[in-house]
């Protein structure tokens, strides 16, 4: 791959100029607004399971799994399905659908019909809509933004996402404490409707790439994407490393919530604060993403960030018991800060590798295929993290996750991925 001759100053200008591209701002705004609501719902749903429904770490893992379960049967074909419709239209319809589905949760809580199985069912329906939305979102960006601007565009999207994560996490803790977890989810429902309105303003001359699907055609198209993806000398190792990373993330995501709310008894406010610290660090990382990506190269940036993600969970695993109140909060915040920084710096480089290397007619299918497997790894990792925490303890769970994150980073290093500069 050729090296990038663009100066840091020119790269910074490119980041600033990307908002001047037609249609990019409403796309960025829609993604940021819905991302804000997502973090409110993430904390509110997990808090509902633990504090309102009396669930364990295993129950948190099952509800998390439910939201990702549709990836097992729909994920591989989502891209092929999206190819048969205008992608902007898919984004608008799925945003409206997700907002409507989430409105059911507080309604069921008010009438006394909300329980863990019902919550899982709601998360499954939301998961189906999210799969279609993500397949359309990530595959439409290369049509909105010229390829030389993709690294900068992805950096801007990550900056918006991390602002949403930071504010969403902080706000979620307060909203859950003030209104209760189910009612706080109405904020996410509203964010989806705002996102749909913003997406509807985008004017993109696009036609469906395929005619209406038959089962045979879908099978053939998914097979083509799978063979292309895992046979690619750059993207194959990256995909496998990412799958391992998501399994580890599933382990710690489940354990983190139950550990903070149950074992440490810190409550939803402090959980929101800790997640908010991670969001702030992610925001800092996203502002550094373009400079680091051009300095180290996209490949080395991804490896370095995945190594940092491994180290981020060491402070959490080292939290002593017993300990003064400030120490767990400080170590949890440190861990989330390192983890958020790693994600914030990595995302733009990784996304630009995918979007530059994948042909347009394969974008939606490759996106949905790798996202499907990634989310399937969380489907496996989330309940596994809950079971491991309940059976072996939280400390053991965090150390196991550290080891798995290390494997994800090491696999890319051994594959020579550090040599990748521009896909």
Structure description:
This protein is mostly helical and 423 residues long. It has 16 helices and no strands. The protein is globular, with a radius of gyration of 20 Å.
Short description:
By secondary structure, the protein is mainly alpha-helical.
Could you give the topology of this structure?
Blueprint: H1 8-17, H2 24-52, H3 57-68, H4 75-82, H5 87-110, H6 116-144, H7 150-179, H8 181-199, H9 215-231, H10 235-263, H11 267-296, H12 298-312, H13 314-317, H14 326-357, H15 360-392, H16 394-414
Helix pairs in contact: 1-7, 2-3, 2-7, 2-8, 2-10, 3-6, 3-10, 3-15, 4-6, 4-9, 4-15, 5-6, 5-8, 6-15, 7-8, 7-11, 7-14, 9-15, 10-11, 10-15, 10-16, 11-12, 11-14, 12-14, 12-16, 15-16
Rg from Cα: 20 Å
Q: Output the structural class.
A: mainly alpha
**Second CATH tier, the architecture:** Up-down Bundle
Number of domains: 1
Instruction: State the separation between the terminal residues, measured CA to CA.
Output: 7 Å
Element order: H for helix, E for strand: HHHHHHHHHHHHHHHH
Strand-residue fraction? under 5%
Low-confidence stretches: 1-16
CATH class: Mainly Alpha
Global mean pLDDT: 79
Helix percentage: over 70%
- Give the CATH topology: Growth Hormone, Chain: A
Shape: globular
Largest sheet: none
The named CATH superfamily: MFS general substrate transporter like domains
Tally of DSSP β-strands: 0
Helical element count? 16
